[in-house]
Amino acid sequence: MEVSxxxxxxxxxxxxxxxxxxxxxxxxxxxxxxxxxxxxxxGYSEEQVRKDLQVVSKESGKPKTGRKVVDIINDIETFxxxxxxxxxxxxxxGNLGGAFMKxxxxxxxxxxxxxxxxxxxxxxxxxxxGKTIFPLDKLVNLVPRLNVHIAILTTPVESSQSVxxxxxxxxxxxxxxxxxxxxxxxxxxxxxxxxxASSLAVLSHKLKRNLK
Amino acid sequence: MEVSxxxxxxxxxxxxxxxxxxxxxxxxxxxxxxxxxxxxxxGYSEEQVRKDLQVVSKESGKPKTGRKVVDIINDIETFxxxxxxxxxxxxxxGNLGGAFMKxxxxxxxxxxxxxxxxxxxxxxxxxxxGKTIFPLDKLVNLVPRLNVHIAILTTPVESSQSVxxxxxxxxxxxxxxxxxxxxxxxxxxxxxxxxxASSLAVLSHKLKRNLK
DNA sequence: TAGATTGTTAATCGATTAACAATC
DNA sequence: TAGATTGTTAATCGATTAACAATC
Lengths: 212, 212
Fold this sequence. Notes:
The structure is a homodimer of 212-residue chains.
Chain A: H1 9-27, E1 32-33, H2 35-42, H3 46-56, E2 67-68, H4 69-80, E3 86-91, H5 95-102, E4 111-118, E5 127-128, E6 131-135, H6 139-146, E7 150-153, H7 157-170, E8 174-177, E9 190-193, H8 196-211
Parallel strand pairs in A: 3-4, 3-7, 4-6, 7-8, 8-9
Antiparallel strand pairs in A: 1-2, 5-6
Helix pairs in contact in A: 1-4, 2-3, 6-7
Chain A binds a DNA duplex (24 and 24 nucleotides) through residues 8, 10-11, 34-36, 45-48, 50-51, 54, 60-66.
């Protein structure tokens, strides 16, 4: 009987990085790869790479030869759900939200932006890359009809918590939060935060240490 | 004698989150706060909050009253270097890079975007929010003159590694990398990665678990 | 004073690394 | 076969949580 191993957050984060590297390998005609090889390139330890790959693939690698590049690619893509498309809406179509609406890269990882929402009358009704920007007060009504469960939150700080209430009402299940504050959501909604301030703080600290 | 405590990456990431929350408190006229209070709101443990605050502030809190909000704010801002402005350039002025050039929020955490660089002839010479877009081959020449040490990397995947070589030559010390691949930099450059694919992967996984 | 909050020291938890036998 | 790579089990490392005495 197959018992699927538990995976940690850190491991999940590494999967897209392996994937990108392996796709590059694949495009260059590389057929096989091994943990030591991936390890050397990406700077992770061999053991870590091995354990990460063990979580996503059922079959084990072969001593001496390693694993087939195309197999790992498929395993990771399957694990991450890149094959079945998920839809999302963007709430807040300012600089960042607008850039995301234009950005074509999301579809490579199975995410399709269906529409945008905003309160700015100048934006409402316009389309960005074929996606319409709807008024925020249509959100509760439209989201169930669009059958979308993920919202990308790129609103100003002040309005974000009130938007969360709307998203709850609309039946949204996951929020990809780019607003740099803590969101108070219930148990029904999961949140993943991308906090640029946090990231920059880490960079600054690394810089200071490196300059010493 | 003061021995400054070591701080972990996780702790650094939390600092801007405390800061935002405390600034909100401050704006609402709240004068004092405590670890239990912050803990309750942000969902971290009390002990964690206490230890985090201990790293940034020299003075200790007072039993029963806690700490002065304005003091913690100052301590965190000082620690993060929000008071002394750092400059940065943006390399790759596409959707994301362009959005960053327009984005006013960076200056609140002490980061000033000086200019952009791109290879696209249609973009070169234009200005976004007062910042000029220069041709990429002027980078090595201009960066030392601008006295800038941080580069925000928002180029396409294919060109990113070659841009890194230019950044090295130009004397850049830190790269804030938004390109979803592993960058090969030397010991002189520090990199902080913001990988949207990793972040989305985590959200998707949380969603799957929550739906079960 | 009593109690809430503090900081410190110890215990736990989780993730990474090391060690090693198995195998193509 | 020999050696590179594998997967597993144990050891280490780091971060979080628990326990508790100190104090305003």
